[in-house]
Amino acid sequence: MASGTESWILMATGRTPTNIAVIKYWGKRDEALILPVNDSISVTLDPDHLSATTTVAVSPTFDRDRMWLNGKEIPLSGDRFQSCLREIRKLADDVEDEKKGIRIRKDDWQKLHVHIASYNNFPTAAGLASSAAGLACFVFTLAKLMNVKEDCGKLSSIARQGSGSACRSMYGGFVKWTMGKDACGSDSIAVQLASESHWNDLVIIIAVVSSKQKETSSTTGMRDSVETSPLLQHRAQTVVPGRILQMEEAIRNRDFASFARLTCADSNQFHAVCLDTSPPIFYMNDTSHRIISLVERWNRSEGTPQAAYTFDAGPNAVLIAPNRKSAGLLLQRLLFCFPPPADNELTSYVIGDKSILHEAGLQSMKDVEALPPPPVSKDKYPSQKFPGKVSYFICTRLGSGPRVLTDESLALLSPTTGLPK
Amino acid sequence: MASGTESWILMATGRTPTNIAVIKYWGKRDEALILPVNDSISVTLDPDHLSATTTVAVSPTFDRDRMWLNGKEIPLSGDRFQSCLREIRKLADDVEDEKKGIRIRKDDWQKLHVHIASYNNFPTAAGLASSAAGLACFVFTLAKLMNVKEDCGKLSSIARQGSGSACRSMYGGFVKWTMGKDACGSDSIAVQLASESHWNDLVIIIAVVSSKQKETSSTTGMRDSVETSPLLQHRAQTVVPGRILQMEEAIRNRDFASFARLTCADSNQFHAVCLDTSPPIFYMNDTSHRIISLVERWNRSEGTPQAAYTFDAGPNAVLIAPNRKSAGLLLQRLLFCFPPPADNELTSYVIGDKSILHEAGLQSMKDVEALPPPPVSKDKYPSQKFPGKVSYFICTRLGSGPRVLTDESLALLSPTTGLPK
User: Fold this and answer.
1) Cβ B43 vs Cβ B201: under 8 Å
2) Where is the Mvd1 C-terminal domain (chains A, B) (predicted)?
């Protein structure tokens, strides 16, 4: 099977970003192949702040496929991992590592077992599309190790079978997942609309919202919506196609006003379909609603969108500002309404790209406490404060697609044992 | 103009119930005439617990039309009051009160002024369709005083022009507001589907939910939805017509399972359309969501609906149980999760038909504190307690339509001054 000693270990490590949809994916037309009922569009987030890193190792000494997530072994038996693994093995090619004297032939991959270790650089439980980044990284890194020659489009269709939105994590910048027409799903792939450098002013602030409620998984929720919501098919067939075209144009023209209007409207419509499901699904809570009101009031008072919001299957808000100045003003408003609970350090409450804090003129908690309330507009809602309702903020930006980490010190598995370091 | 002395006062007093829609009205096709985009169906609530009482007085000594609501004078200049007043005056007929020696001819009504006093036997601010009961009572009582001969259908079309859902308060029991086709609105009237005695087992429990948020008025919200929600027209044209037929059948057959499923689904879809509006409208809050979850979990665990819920343009829940036994069990579950804040008397926390408390075996706060948590089902959500999140509960039932109060001691205006007592 392989030349030289039979105790070698070959490894590859990859890093893959998360993404957040601005035109939402909600509903499958094929549960097994994960084929969606409509196209979706996402932005890829900076992997420095939100990404999955995965190391895959192969060795003739491994007696079974094994996986560790964030240091803890998890079963690999699930359909989703298995179908990705099977698809990648089919495409595997000859690998030769002259330096290590390792040679694996195409057909060997069917018999060789792998060890996989994955790590998210953000809390998995925070509901920040960890499965999208994780599955994309799983597929991307396996493909690298197994010398798969196919392009990102093909890999995206494999990642899709692991977790639908994972296919959009195969590229940086702005990504479209085309639903496709083929019953086998061959044309249900992700394509890049524009790289992150096309529109690099955008700033993203994520509010991780405290929640005690256990949430409906998106897999279950989506299935319930398809089966019971009388509005879902109308959304998928009549509303989304037009929005996809408008969103592509807004991205092409860097038209923030249109981008923001479409992003907010589509987030709200996705949650409307959730509410129209039986039993109804509530992903947003009162804090989510207050964040929306804060942005809507600001946008109305300025007459043109200053920021966009979007919410996935959970209460966390992903806010998008057109530039650093607007992001600074947005962060001021957010911190006025959602200050950290007492005795919290500002630097652990606002994480990620901390330069936005400087942009907002905020160096310490004293500066936060001194923030004036946002100007009250005609509707005369006084701005209330809700300390503790947001767990923390992550400041970030658009980011690049998957990449191989060649620095071996970043590998998550030991090169000698093939077990987590 | 009138025979005898010129200082006489003639009065009439009426009482009109509130109603709660089970298939919702949301969206007008004509703002001025208040013509809806779809039919709706409501149940009329017992006027003993939730109703408006209105006294209308006429006298040649009155120099202008005046109105008092809950003891406070309010301007009558609004379009809605004015159009109702104008329409009723057009239909006014000769009135003769031989005992008092008063004779008013048809044409006199155009010149005579009225005093109107109205009172709601429930908090106006609680968001319990006070305008529906109020406008219906305004029209009904004016019509009685002015000896209007037209039937309730005609009166309902006048009340509709004051406040859309007011037309449904013109009957007891189960009421349908047919949207009509006529551009002038002549066929947009309410009809009774069945009287309250047709299905008199139903018990209604209203949870008045505490809220600090100022809500979007239904007039504004509805207009925004018509203008911006891509889902509203689909709901109105494609979803509601079928639901109306199914709901009529469920009512005809006293089929609680279908009645409950349709009621819950339609409430959720109305709120979904609100969320699909730009800017989005949130009427329900976390407490509303928790009440829905409580009912949904119970229904699922029993395999068949035990209770229905519906929410209007606010966070209050209107819960419908098929009979007193189920209502008692529902009240137990509600009080377990939403106990009164400390030092509250049970008798001021659960008002209306207190016999439901006895049905639930609850005599005092001690009994409430001793309630066991509802059995935990497979999904293993522990039942949490949220004291203070509900302001109070009102237990009631279906009720009858408007009626004249002949007991003069119940009049809200003095028979000698024509001013509030």
Assistant:
1) no
2) 204-405
Residue B152: count of CB within 10 angstroms of its CB: 19
Is B257 in the A-facing interface, judged by CB distances under 8 Å?
no
CB contact under 8 A, B231 and A212: no
Amino acid B250: pLDDT:
98
Q: Give per-residue pLDDT as tens, B163-204.
A: 999 999 999 999 999 999 999 999 999 999 999 999 999 999
- Residue of A220, A246, A276, A290 to mutate, interface with B, max B Cβ within 10 Å: A276
Task: Provide mean pLDDT across the span B296-325.
Answer: 96
Peptide bond into A372 cis (omega under 30): no
Do B49 and B143 belong together in one domain? yes
Enter the ipTM: 0.93
Is B420 a member of any domain? no
Number of domains within chain A: 2
**CB contact, 8 Å: B235 with chain A?**
yes
Strands ordered across the beta sheet of A10-17: A72-74, A66-69, A113-120, A51-59, A10-17, A403-404
Contact B41, B23 (CB under 8 A): yes
Q: What is the pTM assigned to this prediction?
A: 0.94
Statement to judge: residues B15 and B151 lie in one domain: yes
User: Both tokens of residue B224?
Assistant: 């925004």
Which H or E element spans position A32?
none
Q: In this complex, is the C-beta atom of B275 within 8 Å of any C-beta atom belonging to chain A? A: yes
Cβ within 8 Å, pair B261-A239: no
CA–CA separation, B9 and B309 (whole Å): 46
What CATH number is given to the structural domain containing A284? 3.30.70.890
Segment A30-41, tens digit of pLDDT: 999 999 999 999
Same domain, A33 and A86: yes
Q: What CATH number is given to the structural domain containing A98? A: 3.30.230.10
The verdict on A241 touching B (C-beta cutoff 8 Å) is no
Contact B264 A278 (CB under 8 A): yes
Identify the domain containing residue B90 by its residue range. 10-197+403-410
Mean pLDDT of the residues in chain B: 93
Return the structure tokens found at A222: 């989506």
Give B306's contacts in chain A (Cβ within 8 Å). none
In terms of Cα–Cα distance, which of A155, A161, A10 is closest to A80?
Answer: A161
In B213-345 the beta strands, taken as DSSP E runs, fall at 308-310, 317-321
Name the nearest CA neighbour of A109 among A7, A34, A4, A2.
A2
pLDDT recorded at residue B237: 97
Say yes or no: A126 and A218 in one domain. no
Q: Which residues in chain B touch residue A235, judged by CB atoms under 8 angstroms apart?
A: 230-231
| pLDDT attached to residue B406 | 95
| Residues in chain B within 8 Å Cβ distance of A269 | 230-231, 275-276
Does A27 fall in a domain? yes
Report d(CA B292, CA B108) in Å as an integer.
54
| pLDDT classification of A56: cutoffs 50, 70, 90 | very high
List, for residues B3-48, the tens digit of each pLDDT value. Answer: 445 789 999 999 999 999 999 999 999 999 999 999 999 999 999 9
Chain A residues with CB-CB distance to B269 below 8 A: 230-231, 275-276
**Same-domain check for residues A193 and A244:** no
Domain identity same for A384 and A278? yes
Q: Are residues B106 and B190 in the same domain?
A: yes
As a whole number of angstroms, the distance between CA A333 and CA A298 comes to: 9
Is A247 part of a structural domain of the chain? Answer: yes
Q: Are residues B159 and B247 in the same domain?
A: no
The C-alpha angle B265, B271, B277, rounded to 5 degrees, equals: 140
Residues of B in contact with A273 (CB under 8 A): 272
- Residue A331 belongs to some domain of the structure: yes
